[in-house]
From TrEMBL, chain A:
Organism superkingdom: Eukaryota
Organism per entry: Rhynchospora pubera
Keywords: Kinase, Leucine-rich repeat, Receptor, Repeat, Signal, Transferase
A GO term for molecular function: kinase activity
Segments forming domain Disease resistance R13L4/SHOC-2-like LRR: 79-172
Protein name: Receptor-like protein kinase
Signal peptide region: 1-24
TrEMBL record, chain B:
Identification of the protein by name: LRR receptor-like serine/threonine-protein kinase GSO1
PANTHER family reported for this sequence: DNA DAMAGE-REPAIR/TOLERATION PROTEIN DRT100, L DOMAIN-LIKE PROTEIN
Membrane spanning stretches: 776-800
A biological process term (GO) from this entry: post-embryonic development
Source taxonomy: Eukaryota, Viridiplantae, Streptophyta, Embryophyta, Tracheophyta
Keyword annotations of the record: Cell membrane, Glycoprotein, Kinase, Leucine-rich repeat, Membrane, Receptor, Repeat, Signal, Transferase, Transmembrane, Transmembrane helix
Amino acid sequence: MASSSLLISLASCLLFLAVSPALASNSEGEALCAFKSRLSDPNNVLQSWDQSLVNPCTWFHVTCDSQNRVIRLDLGNSNITGTLGPELGRLQHLQYLELYRNSFMGKIPEELGNLKNLVSMDLYENQLEGEIPKSLSKLKSLRFMRLNNNKLTGSIPRELVTLSNLKVLDFSNNDLCGTIPVDGPFSTFPPESFENNKRLNGPELLGLASYDFGC
Amino acid sequence: MAYPLILIALLVSLSLLHHSRTLSCPSTHKQALLHFKSIVAPPPQPTNDSISIFDSWITNNCCNWQGVTCNLALPSKPVTHLSLSAVVPLPYTAPSTAIASLFAIHTLRFLDISENSLEGEIPSPSQGFASLVNLTYLDLSSNLLNGTIPSNLFQLRNLKQLNLGGNSLTGFLSSAIANLFKLQVLSIEDNSLTGPIPAEIGNLIQLKLLSLSQNHFSGEIPESILRLARLQALDLGNNSLTSSIPDQIGALSNLSFLSLKMNQLSGEIPVSISDLKQLQSLELNRNSLTGLIPSSLFHLKMLKKLNLGANKLLLNHSLEIHPRSSFSFLSLRACGLTGSIPGWLSDQKQLDFLDLSENQLTGSIPLWLTGPQIGSLIMSDNNLTGQIPSNLFNSRNLSVLDLSRNGLSGHLPVNIGNASAIMILLLGSNNLSGYIPPSITNITRLLALDLSENQLSGDSFPQFRTDTYLAYVDLSENSFYGEVPVGFGPQIRSLSLASNKFTGPLPAKLITMNFIENLDLHDNYITGAIPHWIGQMSAIYVLNLRDNRLEGAVPFAISNLSKLHVLDLSGNNLTGTVPAEMGQLTGMVDTPITYFSISDLFTFSLDLSDITTYWKGALRDLGYQRVSTYANLDLSRNQVSGRIPSELGNLKGLKSLNMSYNMLEGEIPATFGLLHKLESLDLSHNKINGSIPPSFGSLYQLTTLDLSYNRLTGRIPVGGQMSAMTDPSSYANNSGLCGFQVQVRCEPDDPSEVSEGELDAQGEESIGDHWLNLKWGVVYGFLLGFSVAVVVSYFAGFLYPNAPKRYLRSLR
């Protein structure tokens, strides 16, 4: 059942590309379409993603600004299974990426670092694995970054200390290792943001221990 | 639909009756048939005098029964043919297990049980179909069969015709299909089969007809299909096939019908296609084919129907086309045509259907195109200019005329009514001016009329006769004035008079439109109150009265509109309170609803109008096809006062609720937390006080929230989407809201603080809990034996840098 709906969504996506040569400029719709093709959606929350439309602005769970640019993708709590793909990085104007509490697997694509307008990245409570990409340090507008309750491994990229707007961060309940940065916004995050990472060793000691100590 | 077929079956079987002799059919066959009958025969209806085939199934000799044929040459008189199509009258269904009763008749050669609403899997007990070894003809089409195709079907080695079309079969098509090597006709169209087309299908070299259309087949068209040299008809349309059309498709030299439409085929049209000298119909539309259209295609003498529309094909302009084909149907939609309408079309005297839409054609409509033979002329989305030639309307054959979205100017020809056969007349988005000629009411078959987005004017509308079929009228975005016209006949389903200059009150005659589903009068100067009788327009789904000068209170009778699911009353001068009865708008409780769609009546895509309303802060076209999935309530920009009735929380299907820019007061009803499908909520610019109900934590689909410019206080709820509603402008200009969303710390003893238990009771854990439970100044111990104090200066000096901004409203 899941695989057939996946096939259908794939089909309808490709149909979109086929039917609408005039929409070649609708790159955000195509990106969402490519994303949809990765997903199994037993609750049919993506049913309204009708690819024959001129833009994705009337699709449910997608929000555009007045210039028809996608600024929100809200699919939290939607019983979706699948992977995140590089195409998400093409949503240039995205401010809110809300994919929490689903069954997303695989790695966080480094292309998410291209979302330079991103304010909120909520990927918590999924089954994401691999490392937190260093490229996320390019998200200069980011204020909320919640990656907790996944299976993320590796160390916390030091580059994230440059995210000066970051106000809320939660990396808890993963499998991260090494030490916790102390610079920049990391000076403000409570310990709960990092708890239940068995191999995470606490704040780094500048000049004393290497940051990936214990990794 | 089933009844004519019953009659045919009856006639056929009557002619077979004469063959009966003294001896009767084998009793096992009779028992099998009676068993079949006992399962499928509908319960006797005392008032039903329609004739059933089974009325004759009472005599001893089943060879005399209607639909039954025996081999009378043999002493045992075995049953060999069963013509049992449409013996189950609609609306009855019967279990598919009935088919299994017939497996006992091993002598069957011909079995037709199509159109019987047989429901369930194809039965496959032990031998199943394999026990019918003599079967040469099997038709199970147009039933309600589901599940996979049982493998024992592929043991019917004598089968010459197999029709499984029009069911809901799933799964892959087994490569064992190759066992049926005598097959001449194989039709599995209109099912839900997935996976690739098995290459083994190329072994069925007797095939004359192969239809796998309307499934979900994916992958390539197997090259082996080129071995089917006897193929006359090949239909793989409406699947998900990729890759290219086989280069050697021309090898199928007997093909007269080829459809690969509505797939994802890419690459060029193979040159060899012009070797298909017998080709009468070629449908390649709606793929991703590229390259030039081979001019040799136009030299196929037999070709009558050519549909290449909606690809990325190009017609070579430098090429002089002198077609040898005489087309009756030609679609070159979106084929990159430029310049004037191709002159070679003037020699096409048989042309009944011509679609040149979505090209860049320029110049005026030539007179030779206005000949009397053409039935459908579709040239929308080009750059055609000049006047619409009046000759066009002297044709009694013209049934579809679509010239939408061009640059046509001048007046509508006064003889427009001479084209009395027009059903679809679409002239929207041009520069037409003047008035609507009164003769238009002579077009008695007119179903759809779109004159929107022109400069038409006038204050006296032609009155259509009461026997008109007119169902769809769009006159929006013109300069019509005077009272709101109502003379569109009683069949009208969709009427848009938006963006004109209509004045006066809503005319009482609107209630004579018994079937109206969409009434769009937005952006006019309509005055007076919304009358109580509006509650009698009981078929209405979409009511858009936005931006008029309506006054008085919203009548509670509006709650009688039980199908209403998009109501836009914004931008008027409405006063009074929000009627609590609005909570009874059942159309907003359960969505979606599917309803009559005029475009379903036609085989070409009909781009019907817009249903525009505010969606997430911008004016959007929800589209006539998709609007059924929305439930929107918009009372914004009025002077509505009083409290918001908690009954609105009943409208569980609501996707968008906008009550902004009014004078509402009191608290937000806690029942709003029940609006689980709500994506957009705007209560801004009112006088609402109290706190935001904690139940907002269960607005799981919220994406757009505006509570700004009110008198709200207390903690902003957390949980679910409320933890992602972190744009401070959503909450700006209130009387003391706090929470991490606005980065204002709540006082610990804030009475509105939500407890964890409360959130759990709503079935929603909260990511915000982490934030709520911060332990300030915690000293954290570490493995290495030394500790570092992490002072959580959580709120140290941040103000959101961007000033709150309201979304600009604009069209797409």
